[in-house]
Amino acid sequence: MTIDSDDDVPNRSHPAVSPHHGLPDPVHHVHPVHSVHPVQLVQSVHPDLPDHGHHRYPVGHDLPRGPERRRLVEHVLRGGLLQLAILRPDGAPVLCDVWYRATFSPDRLHFLARPERLLPGDLRLDSRVAGSIVTPPPAGPGPREFTVTFTGTARELAGRAAATELAGHLTRWPVLADTTDPVRLKRGEAPERMYRVEVTEWTILGHQDGTERPRTLPASP
Length: 221
What we know:
Blueprint: H1 41-45, H2 67-78, E1 81-87, E2 93-103, E3 108-113, H3 115-118, E4 128-133, E5 146-157, H4 159-172, H5 182-187, E6 193-208, E7 211-218
Antiparallel strand pairs: 1-2, 1-4, 2-3, 3-6, 4-5, 5-6, 6-7
């Protein structure tokens, strides 16, 4: 599988950079997740980001069409942890938990992890993945308010593509700025790697009309 590198990043203007790593300063414009409406989260954490997968959804403008799509986007932006299933070389699935950042149109989930955390799965051999956005469990068995799962493909990013995604990731999780070196990550020398999930299909499950009905929504390309 081809790993994204510098050549995959369009030649676009970039935001103001940090004097330390040449990357967007992850501290500026960051708001606690609980204090920002989920629809405004991407816009609020870094409003000067270029249009490179960091799509914004101002209230009342350019929102996803349809109530189910709108609720899906809000739910995924509100979350932070996902359970990701990847495949071992023998085809058996393995599960890992990762902290993610979401962008939409195209629908993508980005996460930072050490490759050994994903073993014995290997995304280089089989990029197919499935996952679930982690939500607080209900008090007990019974109808669930709303859950989101997805299928797609995942790949490791390298070079400038990895550094660009890391800059966005640090706006979502600024606590990682003290332990993640963007320069070493770009060179492939850091213990962590940046990954991108290209979502192909969402499945939402919610209590509707007295029953729990799963509904499948295609991802926005």
